[in-house]
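#structure-requests
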Amino acid sequence: MQIQNPVLPGFNPDPSIIRVDDTYYIATSTFEWFPGVRIHESKDLVHWNLVKNVLDTTDMLDMKGNPSSGGIWAPDLSYADGKFWLIFTDVKITDGNFKDMKNYLTTAETIQGPWTKPILINGVGFDASLFHDDDGRKYLVQQTWDYREYRHPFDGVTLTEFDTDTMQLKPETARTIFAGTDVKLVEGPHLYKINGEYYLFTAEGGTIFTHQEVVSRSKTLDELSFVVEPDGPFITNFDTPNSYLQKQGHGALVSTPGGEWYYASLTARPWHHANESATDPRGWSTLGRETAIQKVEWDDAGWPRIVGGHGGQTFVDAPKDAIVTDAPADHSQHDEFDTPTLDINWNTLRVPFTDKMGHTGDGKLTLIGQGSLANTFDLSLIARRWQAFYFDAETKVKFDPYSYQAMAGLTNYYNHSHWSWIFITKNDAGQNVIEVAENKGGLRNGSYTSYLRDQAPVIPDGTEYVYFKSENRKETYTYYYSFDGETWHATGVELDAAVLSDDYVVREYGGFFTGAYVGLAAVDYSGYGSTAEFAYFDYKELGDRVLADGSFSWEKSEQRFD
């Protein structure tokens, strides 16, 4: 049996992996998307199931007004003293000299909870993790942020002892244990004690194509006592531009019951247009930063090495003692909205789904129009990750807008400044029409485009529902509509998927850490609360697969609609 990377496709970055008895858990970042912190579970490292969104109430997490790509950065999951410990960061600023943030701790006896109300720990720096030493002492290990313009903002890795009696840090114990290498941008620290020595895993180079992970070690936890692994880095794709996997780094180490070792890291699978170089730009990561797992071996000097070289492998041997996990073949989703709560795969932005946005159940999702898709405070949108390059998404909506200021439909969305959608609205003649619009930039270089304008199809009188479809084909995607669910009409608008990638967004905006979503939305910025009713949602993956040589292929399961 082999692990095929990535094991968590689509926006699932910054993995923190642990094993409890025979079960593995991975916690990943969620940024501004709610609920916060996704946890996947496996017994074989091959097949993974999403089992819990930890921060699922406003008592646990309130991100209203958080910037795009703010929110939950790099959670750290650990297990000690008979319970799970989760450290997470809520980042309030992404642009500029400051990264105002708060680090919290929550615990639970089982992965399903209940999880305790988060305790505020500090705001020294993001990417904090909790190390449980074998003498019973605990330490917070974290990236340290320096706002001063004359210093590098990434000020090494700080270690601070944690008092389990008061459940607070001891600030007087804080010291820098690792300053990083000349690559800079040291972050994502995880500390382990193996064979009597401390091993520190840290990410460097930024979470782009220069990303890497380095390992250092020390016999003590003294200030600046850690020495970097020779012949490193531990993992990187900076010098493997043709690899199927890119951006590897920022992850965590885990051992199997049989004594094998594995490393879970973030990764990305960029693609490039036919008229672009395969290396410059290196590509467009529309699925965001995903999670990969590599096998680790130890050299004679006691340093960890990635099996197959520091570029990693697409296919990795699974643990010899793996217990096969039952998991679905892909991440397709069909939702008839017949329960009073949303499916675990749905996310909202910054705040939970409440009556202010709408409600679900009895075979329909009702959304009450609020702010535009550019709004970071009040937005009625539910969405799920793109987890394949090739998929179809479809819905059926009933909506009678009051004016052109009211809209409802199907969206492909990255953040407040990069999105598109097909929607019902009202034209100046008072007719209900179908429009396709795209926003592809922020204040620096933004542009909003209405593609159909005066040619927008008029919805025939007496039409109760309109059907929308998005056909996503890796490099491009296209919207379709239907009035009966059988005969589909092309809008004639083919959009560049690269606009919804980390690598495009980074050119426009300081936060570029999530990934593309597809979902349903209702807007009414007039304040009159026009209501849309969605009868179902269908997300169908069309057969992305990787060949044995690491190349990419896909198989279409349905013909394109005309």
